[in-house]
Amino acid sequence: MQKFGLIGFPLGHSISAFIHKAGFESLGINASYELLETDPEVLVDRVKFLKRENYSGFNVTIPLKLPITLFINEVDKYADIAGAVNTVKINADKTLSGYNTDASGFKKAIPKDIDLKGANVALLGTGGASRAAVLALSECGVSEIGVYTRNIPNAMDYLAYMRRKFPEITFTAYQIDQVRDLSRYQMLVNTTPIGMQGRSADMTPVEENVLKTMPENSTVYDVIYNPKKTILLKTAEKLGLRTINGLDMLIYQAISAQEIWFGRTPDFNAMKIAALENL
């Protein structure tokens, strides 16, 4: 039996094991998938454990998508551009190959009738998911991204990196707790954990009085998938805005991960049913 897992912290909200196991079954592959809670302080020991116990690969989530890059021997172009890794393949010689499937998952989850060419996007957060979102948004042709962060001085390296990688996009930084007007944006993307089950489900990164400044037909995209509807998405729906949650993104990135591990494509519907049954 091949062994796979998810590292990050906290993982109590995660349904990744159910999704991946459904994918394994759809491919007829005998494999296990475990949730392995890992603090950044013990990441070195966790990587040693995964190699020693002969895992074939693993996924990476908050807050390890950037720190894990220190252990990677080679990365794909998406991980290189995003500067973050969410999927790892452990090779026969115990070297690690890192990939970023968040970007493709993020993009595939956007309905085809939403045209972002030339659009302005408000992006909340500067972590690994944020970097993947920028990569996906660049492929969608956006022209400007307003980055909202808790600490602008700490975000300067992030902004410099993004401006260097995506010169065709205008990046501007704002203090997230000072957001007052979103009228210039066609999409708002939340990549922070605010609103996540088990962490801050009773909170929202943007209050209703600010969200209502968005134009009609705008879209609010929250990469959180548990709960299915965060307070942010519920408020957006109440205001008549289009909404996207993180569930399809999660499934698409899991599909891409299994394509990396096995060279085959698992069944989307089987994986989505497993996800919905366990939310």
Automatic annotation (TrEMBL):
It catalyses: shikimate + NADP(+) = 3-dehydroshikimate + NADPH + H(+). Shikimate binds at S14, I15, S16, T61, N86, D102, Y225, Q253. Coiled coil: none annotated. GO terms for cellular component: cytosol. Keywords: Amino-acid biosynthesis, Aromatic amino acid biosynthesis, NADP, Oxidoreductase. The keyword Oxidoreductase applies. NADP(+) binds at V223, G246. Involved in the biosynthesis of the chorismate, which leads to the biosynthesis of aromatic amino acids. Catalyzes the reversible NADPH linked reduction of 3-dehydroshikimate (DHSA) to yield shikimate (SA). CDD domains: NAD_bind_Shikimate_DH. Its EC number is 1.1.1.25. This is Shikimate dehydrogenase (NADP(+)). GO terms for biological process: amino acid biosynthetic process; aromatic amino acid family biosynthetic process; chorismate biosynthetic process; shikimate metabolic process. GO terms for molecular function: NADP binding; shikimate 3-dehydrogenase (NADP+) activity. Residues 6-88 form the Shikimate dehydrogenase substrate binding N-terminal domain.
